[in-house]
Amino acid sequence: MPIDPYIALLLGTVGLAALLPARGTGADVASGASTAAIAFLFFLYGARLSTREALDGLKHWRLHATVLACTFVVFPLLGLAARGFVPVFLTDPLYQGLLFLTLVPSTIQSSIAFTSIARGNVPAAICAGSFSSLVGIVATPLLAAALLGDSGGGFSAGSLVKIVFQLLVPFVAGQLLRRWIGSFVARHRKVLGLVDRGSILLVVYTAFSEGMVQGIWHQVSPARLGGLLAVEALLLAVMLLLTWYGAKALRFGRADRIAIQFAGSKKSLAAGLPMASVLFGAHAALAVLPLMLFHQMQLMVCAVIAKRRSHDPEAEPAAADRAGRSPAGAGTRPG
């Protein structure tokens, strides 16, 4: 399957940082711009999320609780278990990045797209992704502080203050101003989506530039990358199986199981990259590498699964299954 075009841009940005890393004054400018971009990203996230629709989505609370449990409980437990792959398959820094990826929230956009292709419960996927993003703003930094500790880049009271001011305060500001700017954001969704992605590219360039200047890439060999990909493939396979058969054991219908599988097995690159930049500082380059690789892997695998599910003989029109159980949801953002 072809590589996701945005992943190609991300890889190109990594290559640019490797050839022309920001140094000296340029690094200071890039760091300041990256900080502002992260704050603006989370401001937009807050402005896009409809609080009323999100609260309405609580009517289907069992499904959303299941997705949140997969995202913030099962995934981190598997991340902790992956410690057993060190040092045979993973170096310690790569393991820290792998553990971080298990802590970030689920996607919105791709979960909705794959749920729609597979003829699942699309409104539930919209709400589940929105809830996961909202919870992740608080849960991801707290889990990272608890599970990664000083090995994750020096978590401290100062780090938590940075998280509050760079992530939480802009998000809350976006929510508070949504009443006045929500329609503007909705009308200019495509343009602001480009701003989103451009901001993330800037964050990636800054993080990998710092990594180049710090000389961290001697820690990563082709064999280690191969080991990382193998571990991530195993992680994704386990989560896809757990979300599908676990939802069946919990007696969810087919449409809901599809939403749970796609929302509960994926991780958000758009949310994870800025968070890593805030949490890891100069160590962010290695921290986000596992997330970037996992993101591409999940897109490729889930695209195949969604296509096969769309031909499932059980995939009769699911309107009756979906009606009245979830609202027609909140806005989306890049996942």
How would you sum up this structure, described in words?
The protein has 335 residues and is mainly alpha-helical. 46% of the residues are buried. The longest helix is centred in the middle third of the chain and has 31 residues, at 157-187. Helix 4 (61-81) runs parallel beside helix 11 (254-264), helix 5 packs across helix 13 and helix 12 (269-280) packs antiparallel against helix 13. The chain is globular and about 60 Å long. Helices cover 75% and strands 0% of the residues. The protein is built from 14 helices and no strands. Residues 316-334 have low confidence and may be disordered.
Range of strand content: under 5%
Categorize the overall geometry: globular
The helicity comes to: over 70%
Structural class, by secondary structure, is mainly alpha
Output the helix-strand order. HHHHHHHHHHHHHH
pLDDT < 50 stretches? 316-334
Mean pLDDT: 82
Q: How far apart are the first and last residues' alpha carbons, in Å?
A: 19 Å
Count of separate DSSP helical elements: 14
Largest sheet: none
Q: Radius of gyration, rounded?
A: 19 Å
Number of strands: 0
